[in-house]
Amino acid sequence: MPKLVNQVAASIERGDHPYLNGAWTPNYEEWDAEDMEVIGEIPADIDGVYVRNTENPAHGVIGKYHPFDGDGMLHMMRIKDGKASYRNRFIRTRGFEAEQEAGRPLWIGFTGKPGAEERTGTGCHGHIKDASSTDVVVHGGEILTSFWQCGEGYRLSAENLETLGIAPWAPIDGVSAHTKVDHETGELLFFNYSRHAPYMHYGVVGADGRMKHYIPVELPGPRLPHDMAFSKNYSVLNDFPMFWPQEMLEQNRFVPWFYKDMKSRFAVVPRYGQPEHIQWFEAEPTFVLHYTNCYEEGDEVVLEGYFQNNPFPPPLPDMPKHYALMAAGIDIHSFKPHLHRWRFNLKTGKTQEERICEADHVEFGTINPRWAGRKNRYVYSALGEKGWFLFAGLVKHDLEAGTYETVTFGEQRFGSETPFIPRRNATAEDDGYLISFITDMKSDRSECVILDAQDITAGPICQIVLPHRICSGTHAVWAQAEEFETAGAAS
């Protein structure tokens, strides 16, 4: 039965803030739950955990709240032998613990006015608290969370979500979302960025949790990279023409600007390469939040991800005026992203690029993790809800056939990033399941849904009803049981 195990006494005025109400209403309660209502039947051949990261301002805010300022909270569904259990926990970062002790907020956040904060951050960017609320992966048998503006990287137990502390290998300049796990080698690849030269670093952590490789990646100035990609032999980093103007930084203001006349630049570096081995490639100006995969073909490194046609959108007309610009900055429809392919020829130094699917307003893509680093056929994208950072449905792209199919979650039903679960003894790349948390505003509840990846339009195989309605958030991950059970036994 569901059991409420803890509740943070939050003090916050939600008012008309679009990202403190509705599907973004924060959670402050921590639950353990078994014997939940199940509509349909949980497949018996699924064994692992599904974990989603979300943002919840546990101790109030100073000034205007941006949804990415909220404290990280993980929601985890453990599935085994046709049964499921659920729990959620705050990530006990140093910032969370400091505000818990003070009983009030200490950092102003992304859109705050510098000088109003009581503390400088524990991450790379001063007044912004490292909430570890953006990304989540499983590496070395533990959950690892990270923050989009660089943070310390927090480890949590995959068994009970207990915060275990900062990753011991994390460098002084932090760890950015998104770290990447190579399931073939067990390695974790990462990057970070900062306001001081060389402005970026790239590293590789071994399956044993020890740093294997760490190099500087020199950039022209401070940048805002958000994702990276890897193939079997290479990693790809970026220098996009959207970053903080120097004159704004000198005022300690972190307001990005898109320089539409500048080229995008991509750094292709051998996995264990040195700075002198980096090859830079130019491409059309854009900004990319997320890549889907990267692989090698002949002399080319091929990168796929979401090209933004409008990286710096105007304020949203349907939002309250004082939130309209902030809301546009996280609205998938405003960015106008589509699936895109870049080909970097290592011999000629030339770039070729093309759109690879007609579907618009798609982002937060996943693939079968067994195909990471090699050519894949299928991508599963979140379909953006117009005017909101919410996921209204799911798009399955067939890159070989050049087609796609779409399923929507239903009226006022919003999903999560939807990882792929390989079926035991799978016979095809898309032979498996897709899993997502759904927030249903009409029924005032949340569910964990599982779909057949080969027939997404058939709807959920099952719906597991959670003990509370959860807040929308950012990234999610699926980990097979052997990814954490074997490591746990060894330790």
Brief digest:
This protein has 491 residues and is mostly beta strands.
Q: What would you note in describing this structure?
A:
Helices cover 7% and strands 40% of the residues. The strands form 8 sheets. A 6-stranded antiparallel beta sheet has the order 1-2-6-5-4-34. The radius of gyration is 21 Å and the shape is globular. The protein has 5 helices and 34 strands. By secondary structure, the protein is mostly beta strands.
Question: How confident overall, as mean pLDDT?
Answer: 93
| Percent strand | 35-45%
Q: Tell me roughly what share of residues is in helical segments.
A: under 10%
Within the largest sheet, what's the order of strands? Answer: 1-2-6-5-4-34
- Compute the number of helices: 5
Number of strands: 34
Q: Stretches where pLDDT falls below 50 for ≥5 residues? A: none
Structural class category = mainly beta
The biggest sheet, with number of strands, parallel, antiparallel or mixed sense and barrel status, is: 6 strands, antiparallel
What characteristic shape results from the CA principal axes?
globular
Query: In whole angstroms, how far apart are the ends?
Result: 31 Å
The gyration radius over C-alpha positions equals 21 Å
